[in-house]
Structures are given as structure tokens and as C-alpha cells.
Amino acid sequence: MLGNRCGPAAVFRQEQSVLQRWKMTIKEIANCLDARVLCGEDRLDQSVTSACCSDLMSDALAFIHENAALLTGITNPHVVRTAGILDLKCIIFVRGKVPPDEVLEMAREQGLVTMTVNKTMFTCAGLLYDNGLRGAPMGWPCREEAVS
Amino acid sequence: MTTACAARPWAGPAGKRRSVKGMVHAEYDIQKGAYNSAGEASADIKRKLQQLGISPVTLRRVAVSSYEMEMNIIIHSLGGTMGLCVDKDWITLSSKDQGPGIEDVELAMSEGYSTADDDARSMGFGAGMGLPNMKRNADDFRITSQLGEGTQITITFKVM
């Protein structure tokens, strides 16, 4: 715990140090999930340190960390905009979803890797966990102090 | 439209208001239900802060808060404005909408409580995390709301 002196920035730093323990490259993720890469083929060597499953972008904004992969069944432009705000590396569209061309073009412009997987979100999460990736800590261990 | 932020009453938490002339100030008009342009103001704010060399941790906290603030105006209000002010020590985001106001602010601050309509939910919003997420990312968070008039939010971040 960080004690009474922790603020939001300190919590972020603590969580980042925890996340450094687990890493997968995006290429490893694609292989693990048997995914089809939709864009960003030249960026598969990047590493991600956590993953988050959500169809709710507000939840993603609250709980996901940078250098993370987002697993979602939502294919509208807000997914890419949310990923841009969060500096995510990779979006994994589950349940075989493929976003429209304009959404993929937005992702290309932002330098995001996107892929589609013909598996449920639960199965994808299980496979990634089994291969060493972890979810971000729920965090905010002392948020009452941080925001009061 | 831009205004000088040095004249703003929200240039820093109470008791620590800065008289330093603002380094960056900007104001954005946000329309009700403007989902097509949602995120553009926040992207511009993030770009401005990147250009100022704000640290990645602070940048991310501000970006997440501004996106939540922008989406709140689009989803819940009749339209409004969002402002950015950066001075030597503080980054301040503010919003002011034209109503309808929040009936129970304490309830609205609860994680998971949402009054978002089906349109917003179909696009992945309405998780009830908007206001709590702004509060948890900020160093100082203030909200005032008057039913029938509107809501004002001011959040500040220490520049690291």
C-alpha cells in the first residue's frame, strides 16, 4: 500500500511496476488466439503488459492501462477513439466481429494494431491468461485518500 | 473560441489559485448528441498537452477525464462548453452545460449509476463510470448542478 501520501499519479506508477511482470508481444497474442490481423501488421513486435475485456468504453476508460490490449465486441468508431485516449497498442475484436472500413482507417491513422478472433471473449481471455498475460490491477487502493 | 484563463475562477484548487497568466487556454463547444464528433475536443486537448511536454502519466489522467467530460455533455446535457487551462503548476478542465441539471449529484457520483439512453449504451457508453472516473483521476474535483439550469464541473491536475 502507498500510505496516506499517495495520489492518482502515484497509484498509476505503482500499477505500472506491477504490470511489467507480464508481457506478450502482439504477434504472440495473434498466434495464441489464431487471430486475423486487420491492420498494423508492421507493429506486431510491440509488447503489451495487460489486457482488458469490455464492451463498455466507460469501463475501459476506468480500468484499462496503457500498453494494454482491449478485447471487445463493439466495432464502432468510439472504440478506436477510446483506444487513442488511452494510448492502447492493440484492439482484439472478439466473436468474429470485423469493424467497418472507416473504423479500420481511423485505427491505421492512430498506429493501432487490430485483429479479429472467431472465439468468444471468455475463451480469448482464458487463452491469453493461460499464456501469461494478466488483467490490470483494479487499482486505486487508496482512492479515498487520493480524491478526498 | 478562446478566453483568457487567468480571469477564470477555477484556475486551481481553492486556496491555491494561480495569478500566473495562462500558458494555454482553449474552449470547445460541445453539442448534445454529437456522437460523430465525440472525442475530437479531447484529442485536441491531449495534443496541446503533448506539445507542452506534460508527463505521460498526467497526460493520460487528463485525457481520460476530458473524454469522460466531453461524453457526459454529449450524452446527458442539452449542449455546453468545455474548457482547458494550463498554467505553471496546474491543468484545469472545466465544463458548463445548458441543462437539464442533475437531480441527485451524490447518486450520480456512484459507480455504476447511469441515466444514459439506449443510443449511448449501444455505442458502449452508460457504464456509470463517467463522473467517478473524472474524480479518481483528478487532484481536485468540483461539481455543482441545479435542476433546470445546468451542471458545472471543474477538475484540476498538478503538473508533474
What does this molecule look like?
The complex is a heterodimer of chains A (148) and B (160). Chain A is of the alpha/beta class and 148 residues long. Chain A has a single domain (3-142), classed as HprK N-terminal domain-like (Udp-n-acetylmuramoylalanyl-d-glutamate--2,6- Diaminopimelate Ligase, Chain: A, domain 1, 3-Layer(aba) Sandwich). Chain A contains seven helices and seven strands, in the order H-E-H-E-E-E-H-E-H-E-H-E-H-H. Chain A has helices spanning 8-19, 26-33, 57-63, 77-86, 101-110, 121-130, 143-147; strands spanning 24-25, 36-39, 47-48, 50-53, 68-72, 90-93, 113-116. In chain A, strands 2-7-6-5-4 form a five-stranded mixed beta sheet, sandwiched between helices. In chain A, helix 4 links the parallel strand 5 and strand 6 (90-93). In chain A, helix 4 (77-86) packs parallel to helix 5 (101-110). Chain A is globular, with a radius of gyration of 15 Å. Chain A starts with 7 loop residues before the first helix and ends with a helix. Chain B is an alpha+beta fold and 160 residues long. Chain B has a domain at 5-12 and 22-98 and 133-142 and 154-158: 2-Layer Sandwich (Heat Shock Protein 90). In chain B, strands 1-2-3-5-4 form a five-stranded antiparallel beta sheet, with helices on one face. In chain B, helix 1 (40-51) packs antiparallel against helix 2 and helix 2 packs antiparallel against helix 5. The interface between A and B is medium-sized, with 28 and 34 residues.
Nutshell version of this structure?
Chain A is built from seven helices and seven strands; from the N terminus they run H-E-H-E-E-E-H-E-H-E-H-E-H-H. Chain A has helices spanning 8-19, 26-33, 57-63, 77-86, 101-110, 121-130, 143-147, and strands at residues 24-25, 36-39, 47-48, 50-53, 68-72, 90-93, 113-116. In chain A, strands 2-7-6-5-4 form a five-stranded mixed beta sheet, with helices on both faces. Chain A has a two-stranded antiparallel ribbon with strand order 1-3.
